[in-house]
Amino acid sequence: MPSLFVESDAADPAPFRFKGDPVDLLALLSFGVAEPFGSHHPLTELVRRLKREHGIDVAPLLTFYDREVEEPLDATNLEAAWQDATALRDGVARLRHCRPVRPCQGPRLRGAPGRLPRDS
């Protein structure tokens, strides 16, 4: 089962908690990473639209790494994924206020009307 963790070095010791299951967000982020490589998956297309049509800097959202360190390179890459919270906060704020320019084509995310069944 995939998981998504948000870690912070802020003074507040309480960890960030998602209000719901973040699996759809994790899928969006995972396919968003493929956007520069020309992927045409609907979630990749959504990330492309957020960048091009809405001018949202998605790079902070797509900067992440597996928290399970199995070799020295993992530790290096995980450390490199740490970033300033301002850009991430600003990107998320813009996403929350984003309205589609045109209807999305392709499968909808879980919980949306007319969604495609999930493979399990």
Mean pLDDT: 79
Summing up helix and strand content along with how strands pair, one would put the structural category as mainly alpha
Query: Beta-strand percentage?
Result: under 5%
**Main β sheet profile:** none
Low confidence ranges: 112-120
Number of helices: 4
H/E element string?
Answer: HHHH
What Rg do the Cα atoms give? 16 Å
Give the end-to-end Cα distance, rounded to a whole number of Å. Answer: 11 Å
Shape descriptor? globular
- Determine the fraction of residues in helical runs and give it as a percent range: 25-40%
The counted number of beta strands is 0
Overview of this structure, please?
The chain is mostly helical and 120 residues long. Helices cover 35% and strands 0% of the residues. It has 4 helices and no strands. It has helices spanning 23-32, 42-52, 72-80, 85-96.
In short:
By secondary structure, the chain is mainly alpha-helical. Helix content is 35%, strand content 0%.
